[in-house]
Input
Amino acid sequence: MDMNVAVVGAGSWGTTVAHLCAHNAPTVIHSRREDVAEAINERNENPRYLEGYTLHADLRASTDLAAVVRAADVLVMGVPSAGFRATLEELRPFLRPWVPVVSLAKGLELGTMKRMTEVAEEELPGHPVGVLTGPNLAKEILAGSAAAAVVAFEDLTIAKRLQEVFSSSLFRVYTNNDVIGCEIAGALKNVIALAAGMADGLGTGDNTRAAVMTRGLAELTRLGVAMGGDPATFSGLAGMGDLLATCMSPQSRNRYVGEQLGRGRALDEIIEEMNQVAEGVKTAKIVLDLAERYDVQMPIAAEMRACVTEGRSAPQAYRGLVQRPATSESAPD
Output
């Protein structure tokens, strides 16, 4: 395929997406760490985040952001939400006009509460902006397990073109034009994963976890639809699919944080030991402000925010949820 792909951000998911793209097109990944770039180029691996997993032999890495971005026909942003805007500002002088930008980040910007595609539209005006999302655990994909994802752009022509870039025999990519729904689902499911992990850490059973996931899906759907998302998106890969994987998998960073909170550990201690970002912690701090703006009730998200910002204990959060008065299942809690 005569399309040069640039992936900015060499964390676990950015590296995995770069590996997938390298099957279809010339792909270069940017890493700020010289040792990571060297390992990818010389040994086809990223030992910092994906030790023991072999990457596509044609994948190249570089620490030269300007060179990577200048050659791009597609720019894939594998940067966490906290550094998303600053990275766009840094690379903006090197990006050619009209190059599509694909966000992999599943979070919201602190302060502005903006989605990552909104941030990209502000920083890179004139560029089509979309998102790749779904129930995608990096190590499972690199191990050869089948998976599926959604590439969403308002312009489906662009989505269909990029579908070819990301797809492989075991990685099935669907198109969607609901960018808002796909992004909101991806960001808010991380908050629900904190709750699901917390339930596990408290020693509750599968009934509890199922209830948390189901009512959590109702919460993020209400907010996503209020913001302009398509209800169907939230029952698909970007919504329910991603929620299930994130709430259930031991590989999920957000679920792990919740589980450790459930076991009584301090949040700062948990975050300090991790070398990757758990987006749900940051999103939990701002999601209630967004819910208030759209007049949506989100009791699970409210308890998670209290846990990460006010020091509420896991047992207190659990009691706060189970003691809420029961209503109709279709009611907004």
Remarks:
- Residues 77 and 103 are 5 Å apart (CA to CA).
- The mean pLDDT is 93.
- The chain has two domains: 5-177, 180-322.
